[in-house]
Automatic annotation (TrEMBL):
PANTHER family: TRANSCRIPTION INITIATION FACTOR IIA SUBUNIT 2. Keywords: Nucleus, Transcription, Transcription regulation. This is Transcription initiation factor IIA gamma chain. The keyword Transcription regulation applies. Coiled coil: none annotated. Gene3D superfamilies: Transcription factor IIA (TFIIA), beta-barrel domain, Transcription factor IIA gamma subunit, alpha-helical domain. Residues 27-65 form the Transcription initiation factor IIA gamma subunit C-terminal domain. SUPFAM superfamilies: Transcription factor IIA (TFIIA), beta-barrel domain. It is found in: Nucleus. It comes from Papio anubis. Belongs to the TFIIA subunit 2 family.
Amino acid sequence: MAYQLYRNIALGNSLQVILDELIQSFLNTYRFCDNLWTFVLNDVEFREVTELIKVDEAKIVDCDGKNTGSNTTE
């Protein structure tokens, strides 16, 4: 997998540290079932260039786009 290329260099290590800190600070729950990730975050800020939106709780749902809508095997 391509993401493993960055694991053992400074960029990959720095990204992992930042992600670990973010997850410990904001992540309430997560689950993975049937190729679907669900994350529930607390006290989240969404930022755009001129806007800032703060919410008490946000749910992020993510799926593998390669397998969406297809039941065929490769």
